[in-house]
Amino acid sequence: MQIITLILFSIGNTSTLLRKIPLISRGQRAGCYILKLLELPSNFENSSGFIMPEYENKTGGDSGGEILIDISNLNFAYESNPNLRVLKNLNLKIYQNEVVSIVGESGSGKSTLISLILNLYELRSPPPNSGNSTYNNGNSDMIKLLGVSINSINPKWFHENIAVVQQQHRFFNGTILENLTYCLPEHAAAAAGYHVEGKQDVIWDALELVDMREYVDSLSDGLNTRMGDQNTSLFSGGQNQRMCIARALIRRPKILVLDECTSALDPENTRKICDLIKDVLIEKLGMTVIIVTHAKELMKISDKIICLKDGYCIETGDFETLMHRRKYLYNLINSNFDI
């Protein structure tokens, strides 16, 4: 009888193991990809000759603020399809301490423009003898940050001074403290006036800014509360978005990019995000905020709205001005456009 029991037990375990083989195989492949990624050379290792632009907090917009991002006659095509220009003859200026919304239908070039500002794609001349005059259209002077050509800027500058909050946020399985400090480098802590050992001070300050300190403090384990897939009901949708912004604020970036940050939020939480942008990011911290959005509430608090269509900048201005014109933005909003 014992032998039969052992045989049945072994068969059951073998069956379970066989069902797990595809998962093990996928895990092995994922591990290989991660190892390859870790072996890629870092731009940080060879950053000599690059420039670190100097940033001074200023306000004023068009009436006197310093130009932060200057885009001049920008054309861009992806290497995979060099004859198709995604952005065409763009001329834009974004000033320090401005809130700027980028608006347009799906495929208008919003994501590409943001990617170029973040220096995720390199502006360079067409390949030799390609006969192609549109591919990237040729030089990094088309985008300047604080007067410096984007390709000349030290890669560290982007990591230290720009933060991004994506539409699809992701938290790791771990504590609140771990999630919000994974990417906290020593230089950011020092710039914010803290030592790395004092991570909790950095966290509480960031949570205070996004009005989440009281809630997190009320949790029985505080910053040591587990989150991620281990505790999906910990935060509401609006709280999740504010936690994402808190994570971005820890490094005290100069530029914050918000990519459809209110797309899944109800009107009340959208209003709270708007208040956070106006009262904290702009007034308290003096940041420049760039928003990819289709939400009227965010457009209304913007100093400038950039409307893109088929890679062209169709019109720019504040919400009231553009709605009064009754042209592209007016028609876009009233058509419930596809983002």
UniProtKB/TrEMBL annotation:
InterPro entries: AAA+_ATPase, ABC1_TM_sf, ABC_transporter-like_ATP-bd, P-loop_NTPase, Type_1_exporter. GO terms for biological process: oligopeptide export from mitochondrion. Residues 69-335 form the ABC transporter domain. The keyword Membrane applies. GO terms for cellular component: mitochondrial inner membrane. It is found in: Membrane. It is a multi-pass membrane protein. It comes from the Eukaryota. Keywords: ATP-binding, Membrane, Nucleotide-binding, Transmembrane, Transmembrane helix. The keyword Transmembrane helix applies. GO terms for molecular function: ABC-type oligopeptide transporter activity; ATP binding; ATP hydrolysis activity. This is Unnamed protein product.
